[in-house]
Specification:
By secondary structure, this protein is α+β, with helices and mostly antiparallel strands. It has one domain. Helix content is about 20%, strand content about 40%. A ten-stranded antiparallel sheet has the order 3-4-5-6-7-1-2-8-9-10. The chain is globular.
Length: about 180
């Protein structure tokens, strides 16, 4: 696939699902989430107990994009969660939730720590019960997200851009608007 070629919709949706999981699986409410510093964030997602390498990406954000993503995940959770508790202690948020996204009931416990200006870590343990089996998604998941601020976004990046390690690029703002070509390689 050459530079600028559109990625097949199935692959785009799979990658979007990975990133959405990182955001949406964070059951803290939007008002509890600290704003991230605008610019380029290096992110690494590791799933414990899986034979899969860590997923790495870069995410270019500004204040508007960061808030929109938090509001989007908070709105989805409000409709789907019977329990959402968040406790804050200094630079740490501890959250617990019970949510049903149509694929069974997911009970999650997580800890977010860091300053959201230079680096943060999110550890999430989730257990899904009921609902249909989901390919490549075990009933119990332990995930860690490590993020570090890398500096200003690069000249060819715009807020919302997510650059995967394999060269694929998408923009969450384009994807949520349904714009064609939201993901490219």
């Amino acid at each position: 696939m050459g530079l600028g070629a559109t990625i097949p919709k199935e692959s785009a949706m799979r990658l979007l699902a990975i990133f959405a999981l990182a955001i949406i699986a964070t059951p803290a409410t939007a008002q509890d989430m600290p704003a991230r510093k605008a610019g380029l964030w290096d992110m690494k997602m590791t799933f414990e107990g899986r034979n899969a390498p860590p997923q790495t990406m870069q995410h270019c954000i500004d204040a508007t994009t960061d808030k929109a993503m938090q509001d989007m995940s908070g709105g989805m959770q409000a409709e789907s969660c019977s329990k959402r508790e968040t406790k804050k202690a200094g630079n740490t948020l501890v959250f617990d939730s019970v949510c049903n996204f149509g694929t069974g009931t997911t009970t999650s416990h997580g800890v977010m720590s860091g300053d959201f200006n230079s680096a943060y870590t999110i550890k999430i343990n989730s257990k899904r019960e009921g609902g249909p089996a989901i390919p490549n998604m075990p009933a119990e998941t332990s995930m860690m997200i490590e993020a570090k601020w890398a500096g200003p976004c690069k000249a060819d990046q715009k807020p919302g851009d997510i650059m995967m390690a394999n060269g694929m690029k998408m923009n969450v703002n384009d994807m949520k608007r349904g714009a064609p070509g939201g993901m490219k390689k």
